[in-house]
């Protein structure tokens, strides 16, 4: 099935399979896989970094902490599917090493240090970057943003309104307080994704 998904991803990545969207990638679930469609070249760079990290974790015997990255090209990446952590009050939250103890697998703190030191990873504790494995423990599903990529490329493009930043505010269409995709400081279109703003 994996080879078919890779070859025909356009036919698989339809609205009914949509599971999430970030500033640079849009995610669809197909059976036990997710396809991350690159919306911007930065998304491609993130996916390449995830593949690099996953291969390194295979060598280190630390794959249980990461969604397996099977394939990356300039258009998509394919990973193993894990159920995302639930949002709280329509927004993600920061993983708390004390409060979220039941979710945290043994050795997690060591992996955080490794990702920071060896791979320059950024935004490691945001709940939107995690899924849950069969034991109910967190697994990295979005781990390709580095500090240097964020600071040198993502931030300037977000400030220029080329790629969206995520704001937490009331949607002008449905009235719910949600995460909104905002394109620069002059963007006044405060609609959520469900109300049509990508």
Would you kindly provide a brief summary of this structure?
The protein has 198 residues and is an alpha+beta fold.
| Structural classification | alpha+beta
Residue share in helix: 25-40%
Radius of gyration: 17 Å
Major sheet: order of its strands?
Answer: 1-2-3-5-4
- How far is the N terminus from the C terminus? 29 Å
Query: Which topology of the largest domain does CATH recognise?
Result: Phosphorylase Kinase, domain 1
Name the average pLDDT: 93
CATH architecture of the largest domain: 2-Layer Sandwich
The number of E-state strands comes to: 10
- Biggest pleated-sheet summary: 5 strands, antiparallel
* SSE pattern, N- to C-terminal: HHEEEHEEEHEEHEE
- Please work out how many helical segments DSSP would assign: 5
CATH homology superfamily of the largest domain: Phosphorylase Kinase, domain 1
Commentary on this structure:
One of its GO terms (molecular function) is kinase activity. This is Protein kinase. Keywords: Kinase, Transferase. With 198 residues, the chain is of the alpha+beta class. It has two domains: 2-153, Phosphorylase Kinase, domain 1 (2-Layer Sandwich); 164-195, no CATH class. The protein is 28% helix and 23% strand. It is built from five helices and ten strands, in the order ααβββαβββαββαββ. It has helices at residues 2-7, 9-12, 41-60, 108-119, 147-159, and strands at 18-21, 25-30, 33-38, 69-72, 76-80, 83-84, 130-132, 138-140, 165-170, 177-182. A five-stranded antiparallel beta sheet has the order 1-2-3-5-4. The longest helix has 20 residues, at 41-60. The mean pLDDT is 93.
